[in-house]
Write a structure and sequence with these properties.
Layout: E1 9-16, E2 21-27, H1 34-41, E3 53-54, E4 57-58, H2 75-117
Antiparallel strand pairs: 1-2, 3-4
């Protein structure tokens, strides 16, 4: 649609009222305002979008703002998180180095081939 590729999605009709229809969209991968664009393509207007799930996480309803509270991060959790991200950064750096080395090996092989082909 308009030179854009959208991911797969499924649509179910939840309920119908006089002029409103509640639809349930299930997107497997989404872009900004994708639902609005798709609905506009079919000449349908979106009054309100409500996210009910994000990946494996279900978003629940919060009745009152006072019900939320900040949970402090204890030092043990902070240490575990620091180790996780440090290991992740090391793996990413190693992967980048591997890619650079593969590129270098490829360049050496091509140069070697050129050297053999040219008398």
């Amino acid at each position: 649609m308009n030179d854009r590729q959208f991911g797969l999605y499924s649509v179910d009709v939840e309920s119908r009222q006089n002029t409103n229809t509640w639809r349930h969209f299930k997107l497997f991968e989404g872009k900004n305002n994708e639902i609005r664009r798709v609905m506009r393509k079919f000449s349908l207007r979106v009054n309100r979008l409500q996210r009910v799930k994000y990946g494996p996480y279900t978003i629940g309803q919060v009745q009152e703002p006072g019900m939320l509270r900040e949970v402090p991060i204890v030092p043990q959790i902070k240490h575990i998180m620091m180790q996780y991200y440090r290991d992740r950064a090391r793996r990413a750096s190693a992967l980048i180095e591997d890619v650079k080395n593969q590129k270098t090996v490829k360049e050496v092989k091509e140069a070697f081939k050129k050297g053999i082909e040219e008398p």
